[in-house]
Amino acid sequence: MNYSIIVPLYNEEKNVKLLNKDLVHSIIELKKTKENEFQLIFVDDASEDNTFDELKKFSTNPIETLIIKHRINLSQSAALNTGINYSKYENLIILDGDLQNDPGDLKKMVTEYEKGTDMLIGWRKIRKDNFFLKTLPSLTANYLVRVFSKSKIHDHGCAFKIVKKSSIDELTNWGDFHRLLAARLANNGYKITEVEIKHNKRIHGKSNYGFSRIFKVIIDLLYLNFFKNSKRQAIYFFGMFSFLSIFCSLIVFCVMLYLKYALGRSFILTPLPLMVIFFLIAGIIFLFIGFLAQLIISQQNNNLKKQNIIEEEIYIKRN
């Protein structure tokens, strides 16, 4: 089997040099025992630091390498989509550029993948993140995904994956598809397996993920179940208003119960029941406005793919 390795990057100037060195080393070691061909694809999603300048220094790479820079910052999933569109091999290896995914696990991942599966995803069983800011939100999100999808994977948020390119289509890669790719493929009947991998502590740069991912995962799951054959991106905007409104409804309802059972007051003489109904209905309306809005602008998203979002490409060919 041959592999295209895709690494999306955003403001990782202090990590890319070591990342490339470790990846090249792992590839060379793997090629000593397996007759695999590899292609490295680095996609800089319009970093604000010197990430692309550091990538340019890879001109002596002994592995075929493609370096791409987005003209504007789009998203991690957009960077992955660019890498997928430029990949030459059927099997895709995806990992983050922050060095928390260990390139040393490449051989383990490839060996497990070649036993036969449509997608292999890493399981960061021992996390090296802040528990309350990163690990707890991840555990919560993964629990919700297992409950509301057909996927039983432990760590849906792990970026280290190997997947068949043919399994990723227009019905799978809508929105931030990297977040729930395993769940989406599982819902489409693909075989998903996992393997334990190392997880390194982030040394340079900062993560942009936290508790907010839980709300996005919930919205993803709702959309996945209600509109499986559509794409979504902007519903996060309306989704946040929806959850805030429903949360207000819950708070007011709790106040009603407190007045009734703790203070013995009748809440019927207050506007609280109307407020509960108002916030609840508003939350539902906001959510479905988001769904409908995305269906309307889906054509605009398709047109974006046809635009020139690539600012620069560097191709390094090695025999």
Which CATH architecture of the largest domain would you pick?
Answer: Alpha-Beta Complex
Portion in helices: 40-55%
Mean pLDDT: 85
Overall number of structural domains: 2
Low-confidence stretches: none
Number of helices: 9
Q: So, the CATH homologous superfamily of the largest domain?
A: Spore Coat Polysaccharide Biosynthesis Protein SpsA, Chain A
Strand order of the largest sheet: 7-5-6-4-1-2-3-8
Structural class: alpha/beta
Topology (elements, then pairings):
Elements: E1 3-9, H1 16-31, E2 38-44, H2 51-56, E3 65-70, H3 76-86, E4 91-94, H4 106-113, E5 119-123, H5 131-148, E6 161-164, H6 181-187, E7 192-196, H7 212-226, H8 235-261, H9 272-306, E8 310-316
Parallel strand pairs: 1-2, 1-4, 2-3, 5-7
Antiparallel strand pairs: 3-8, 4-6, 5-6
Description:
By secondary structure, the protein is α/β, with parallel strands linked by helices. It has two domains: 3-210, Spore Coat Polysaccharide Biosynthesis Protein SpsA, Chain A, CATH 3.90.550; 235-302. Helices cover 45% and strands 14% of the residues. The chain contains nine helices and eight strands. The protein has helices spanning 16-31, 51-56, 76-86, 106-113, 131-148, 181-187, 212-226, 235-261, 272-306; strands at residues 3-9, 38-44, 65-70, 91-94, 119-123, 161-164, 192-196, 310-316. It has an eight-stranded mixed β-sheet, sandwiched between helices. Helix 5 (131-148) runs parallel beside helix 7 and helix 8 runs antiparallel to helix 9. It is elongated and about 80 Å long.
